[in-house]
Amino acid sequence: MKSKKILVIGSSNTDMTVKAEKLPLPGETVLGGTFCMGHGGKGANQAIAAKRLGGDVSFACKVGKDSFGTMSIEKYRSENVDISNVMYSDCPSGVALITVDGNAENSIVVASGANADISVEDIRNMAPVIASSSILLMQLEIPLEAVIEAAKTAHEAGVYVVLNPAPAPAQGLPEEIYRYVSLIIPNETELALLTGIRTDSREAVLSAVENLKSKGAKSVIVTLGSKGSLVCDGDTSELIPARKVKAVDTTAAGDTFCGALCVALAEGKPMSDAVGFATAASSLTVTRMGALDSIPCRDEVIGLV
Ligand code: ATP
Ligand code: RIB
After folding, report:
1. Average pLDDT for 79-105
2. Which of 83, 87, 208 shows the shortest CA–CA distance to 146?
3. What's the 254 CA to ligand 2 centre distance in angstroms?
4. For the chain, what percent of residues have pLDDT higher than 90?
5. Where are the domains of the chain?
C-alpha cells in the first residue's frame, strides 16, 4: 500500500552522551564513563524513525547557523527525509547532555537554542504543508504556542494529529490542545504531570487516562518502558507487553515507538497492529547506544512482527 505523508514538526539536537555506572547526584562527580556524540532531539528521532521504518516523511525544525546545525541537516538529507521546511535561526543549534547508567536509565538536560525560536508565525507560514499531510506528529521540545497552532491548523484540515507530550510541562497542558489532538502518547511520568495523578499502579494509570479523557483527549497510549504500553482506544484498554531484550540505553525508545506507530497508521493498519510494530521497533532501539543512531530499519522490525 502506498504510504501517506507524515509531517514531523519538532526539535533537532546534537546529543552528547556519557555512559557510566550511575547517574551523579547534585554536586557529585562520577568517573569512569564513556562518551559518544550523535544526532538527536525528539523531533529528529521521530522523523528518522518514521523514515527508516518505511514512512513518507517531511521534517520541519529550526537549527542555528553553526556546524552542529549543518551536520544535522546533512544527516537528515542523507536519510532521504524531506527537509524543505527546515528553518534557520541566529540562536545556536540545540544540544542535549545525556547521562546513561548501568541499568540503561538516562537523565537529560537540553539547551534548546534554535528549537525555542520556532514561532507561531513560522507555523502559519507552513499551513499549506500541514494541511496537505495525512499525519502530523509533534512533541514538546519546541514552544507550546507553536505546537498548539500547528495542531489547530492540522485539525481544521482533517489531518490526524499525534502528540507525544515530552517533556511534559509541570503545570500540564491547556485544555484547548486536546480538541485538536487525535492521539496522545505520554509515558507514565508525563501522564502524571498532565493529570496531577501519581501513576504508580495499573489502576492509577487507568484513572489518569480517564482524567486525560475528561480534559478532551480522544485516543491515549501510555508507554510504560520495559512493561510495554497501555492502549486506550474508544472504551477499551489493552496492555501490550514489551519484548524481552537486554537494554543498554533507552534513549529514543519513546521516539521510535511514536515514529513507528505513525508509519503503521499511515499504512492503514489497525491500532493493535500499529502498536505491535511500534513495540518491536522500540525494543531494538533500547539494545543500542545513542538516540538517532540506535533506531532500526524496517527490515529488522519486519523480522520480529
Ligand atoms: P525515552 O524518553 O527513553 O525515549 P519514553 O519514556 O518516552 O522513552 P518508554 O515508555 O520508556 O518511552 O518506552 C517506549 C516503548 O519502548 C515502550 O512502550 C516499550 O515498548 C519499549 N521499551 C522501552 N524500554 C524497554 C525495555 N527495557 N525493553 C523492551 N522494550 C522497551
Ligand atoms: O528522546 C530522546 C531525546 O531527548 C534525545 O535525543 C535528546 O536530544 C532529547 O531531546
Report:
1. 96
2. 87
3. 10
4. 94
5. 5-22+34-302
61 pocket-lining for ligand 2 (C-beta < 6 Å): no
Q: What is the pTM (predicted TM-score) of this model?
A: 0.97
Atom of ligand 2 lying closest to residue 141 CA:
10
Closest residue by Cα to atom 28, ligand 1, is: 226
Amino acid letter at 180? Answer: Y
pLDDT exceeds cutoff 50 at 2: no
**Ligand 2 atom at minimum distance from 254 CA:** 1
pLDDT at 261: 98
Residues 6+ apart with CB under 8 A from 214: none
User: What does the pLDDT read at residue 3?
Assistant: 47
Beta bridge partners of 110: 96
With cut-offs at 50, 70 and 90, classify the pLDDT of residue 108: very high
pLDDT in tens, 41-52: 999 999 999 999
Among 3.40.50.1980, 3.40.1190.20, 3.40.120.10, 1.10.10.60, name the CATH number for the domain at 5-22+34-302: 3.40.1190.20
CA angle 135, 179, 171 (to 5 degrees): 105
How close is the Cα of 231 to the center of ligand 2, in Å? 23
- Please give the single-letter amino acid code of residue 150: A
Is it the case that residue 1 has pLDDT exceeding 80? no
Torsion of CA 260, 251, 187, 92, to 10 degrees: -90
Residue whose grid cell is 550511575: 22
Task: Say how many Å lie between the CA of residue 1 and the centre of ligand 2.
Answer: 31
Residue nearest to atom 4 of ligand 1 (CA): 252
Q: Nearest 5°: phi and psi at 291?
A: -100, -90
